[in-house]
């Protein structure tokens, strides 16, 4: 059994009520009601760009998109090695088309390491949100 793959979701039932969920080949989306307010929002965990873009047609209101995107936005997202300009351009164009903003990463620069003595570090895990 591998050390990665799959999607896990969890929430506190005292704070959020699951309203509905959508299961796709590469994603799980859930709509929640916040128990402390009238806020209703969507959360999607996914690493597949087209599926997320397609979901945008279904999701209305506030939406959080979180996950291992397995790509970087700029050279600053990697401590060493080559940066594929085509890959970063495609990711940034997709983010622009999705009209989302990124939640800033606090207290560190990277989210993944290959755990070697001279590690490769990257920032591939991200959280985005719309402004609806």
UniProtKB/TrEMBL annotation:
<dbReference type="InterPro" id="IPR036691">
    <property type="entry name" value="Endo/exonu/phosph_ase_sf"/>
</dbReference>
<dbReference type="InterPro" id="IPR005135">
    <property type="entry name" value="Endo/exonuclease/phosphatase"/>
</dbReference>
<protein>
    <recommendedName>
        <fullName>Endonuclease/exonuclease/phosphatase domain-containing protein</fullName>
    </recommendedName>
</protein>
<feature type="domain" description="Endonuclease/exonuclease/phosphatase">
    <location>
        <begin position="49"/>
        <end position="131"/>
    </location>
</feature>
<dbReference type="Pfam" id="PF03372">
    <property type="entry name" value="Exo_endo_phos"/>
</dbReference>
<dbReference type="GO" id="GO:0003824">
    <property type="term" value="F:catalytic activity"/>
</dbReference>
């Amino acid at each position: 059994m591998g050390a990665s793959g799959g999607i896990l979701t969890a929430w506190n039932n005292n704070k959020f009520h699951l309203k509905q969920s959508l299961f796709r080949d590469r994603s799980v989306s859930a709509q929640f009601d916040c128990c402390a307010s009238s806020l209703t929002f969507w959360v999607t965990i996914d690493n597949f760009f087209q599926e997320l873009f397609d979901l945008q047609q279904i999701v209305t209101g506030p939406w959080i998109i979180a996950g291992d995107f397995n790509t970087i936005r700029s050279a600053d997202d990697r401590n060493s090695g080559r940066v594929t300009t085509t890959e970063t351009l495609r990711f940034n164009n997709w983010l622009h088309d999705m009209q989302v903003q990124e939640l800033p990463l606090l207290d560190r620069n990277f989210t993944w390491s290959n755990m070697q003595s001279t590690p490769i570090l990257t920032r591939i895990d991200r959280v985005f949100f719309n402004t609806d």
